[in-house]
Specification:
Strand content: 5-15%
Keywords: Coiled coil, Hydrolase, Protease, Signal, Thiol protease
Oligomer: single chain
Coiled coil: 27-114, 151-244
Radius of gyration: 46 Å
Shape: elongated
CATH class of the largest domain: Mainly Alpha
Distance between the termini: 100 Å
Structural class: alpha+beta
Helix content: 55-70%
Number of domains: 2
Strand order of the largest sheet: 1-6-2-3-4-5
GO molecular function, one term: cysteine-type peptidase activity
Number of helices: 7
Order of helices and strands: HHHHHHHEEEEEE
Pfam families: CC_PcsB, NLPC_P60
CATH topology of the largest domain: Helix Hairpins
Region (Disordered): 251-288
């Protein structure tokens, strides 16, 4: 009996030592992991602060670009008004010149047919007195001066027409330069916005990852604490068993057997959240020229708004981009310069329906339209106008791109 009692006591002691050692090791391990996660979270907070500063700078840059674009649009509207007024002035001068030219030609015919110089001499010779002669001379001088004034005014008006034409051409050049700058601003704006979106997405992904890791860590910690509680319970049971064995050999054997049978170790498992990998969408089918033209016609009459990408308002490159997205599913770029590279450059004379027309030099184009055939195109022209049909005969493009 004493031998069996000693065996039970020895077994209980060994079991107690076996349970205590892993518990200490596991505590140290989790404390280290928790400290490491706290350090990672603090690092992330520092990165978030730095990233937010970059976001603020990018948003300020975007706001500045939009302000500059609005200033350019105001200048564009002023230039357009001035150009329209110059056109009206030129037309008025042309009408005045045409009427005056008719009067001058009629007077020239009268002089030639009636020999007006002889008439003037006869009028002087027929005067009744010297004062009468002076009066007739004054009247004839007035007529001659009036004719001279008429001719001089005609010359001045013709020069005014040429000056206003030159001034209008200068205004049109400024308008084209401003439009090119607006397109360039839009490209810069899109790049800044893309950087901003990437930065925000990266920050959100990092935040989500760290939050997930933090939740997993909390779950592991809870499981660890539950395991510690179970181990402490088993230790208490073992200690009670040792004490009972020392007092009563027969009852300790039954108690130890019941305790060993009733105590079963359990393990906690921590699930790792699955990572979903987004699938790459299948490319959309390509359209054709007639489909593109048909889509473009759907938007006739919609207002021009700088930077607008549809479907209710457009600017020139926003319109072409939207039409191609609807028909082909292909993004040809958000402003004129990337759209130039979306296909093959061809002469304007070879453009087919669905091709793109561009105005300006490659790399700094100011306008884009969709060819519809017959030397015509559909485009979103400028502020104050709507999507409409235009003709190369009145506003000729610089080159075309086969899409």
């Amino acid at each position: 009996m004493k031998k069996r009692l000693s065996s039970v006591v020895i077994a209980s002691t060994v079991l107690l030592g076996t349970l205590t050692a892993p518990m200490v090791a596991m505590a140290d391990n989790y404390d280290t992991q928790i400290e490491q996660k706290n350090s990672e979270i603090n690092d992330l907070k520092a990165k978030q602060s730095s990233a937010q500063k970059q976001i603020d700078e990018l948003e300020a840059s975007v706001a500045k670009i939009n302000k500059q674009a609005n200033e350019l649009l105001d200048q564009q509207a002023t230039l357009q008004d001035e150009s329209v007024q110059l056109q009206k002035d030129i037309e008025t001068l042309k009408e005045r010149i045409a009427k005056r030219e008719e009067t001058i030609q009629r007077q020239a015919r009268d002089v030639q047919e009636k020999n007006q110089s002889s008439v003037f001499i006869k009028a002087l010779l027929d005067a009744d007195s010297f004062s009468d002669a002076l009066g007739r001379l004054k009247a004839m001088t007035t007529i001659v001066n009036a004719n001279n004034d008429l001719v001089n005014q005609q010359k001045a008006d013709k020069k005014a027409v040429e000056d206003k034409k030159a001034e209008n051409e200068k205004k049109q050049a400024e308008i084209a330069a401003n439009q090119a700058k607006l397109e360039e601003q839009k490209g810069t704006l899109e790049a800044k916005q893309a950087d901003l979106n990437v930065l925000k997405s990266t920050l959100a992904a990092q935040q989500a990852t760290k939050e997930s890791e933090k939740e997993a860590l909390n779950a592991q910690k809870a499981a660890y604490e539950a395991e510690q509680a179970r181990i402490r319970q088993e230790q208490a049971q073992v200690a009670a068993t040792r004490q009972a064995v020392a007092q009563q050999a027969s009852s300790s054997q039954a108690s130890a057997s019941a305790s060993n049978t009733g105590s079963s170790s359990s393990s906690a498992s921590v699930s790792t959240p699955a990572v979903s990998i987004p699938s790459t969408p299948a490319p959309a089918p390509s359209g054709n020229g007639s489909a593109i033209v048909a889509e473009a016609y759907k938007h006739i009459g919609k207002p021009y708004v700088w930077g607008a990408k549809g479907p209710d308002t457009f600017d020139c490159s926003g319109f072409t981009r939207y039409v191609y997205l609807q028909v082909t599913g292909r993004d040809i770029g958000g402003w004129t310069v990337p759209q130039e590279s979306a296909g093959t450059v061809i002469p304007v004379s070879q453009a087919q329906p669905g091709d793109l027309y561009f105005w300006g030099s490659r790399g700094s184009t100011s306008h884009v339209a969709i060819a519809i055939g017959g030397g015509q195109y559909i485009h979103a022209p400028q502020p104050g106008e709507t999507v409409k049909v235009g003709s190369v005969a009145y506003f000729a493009p610089s080159f075309a791109v086969r899409m």
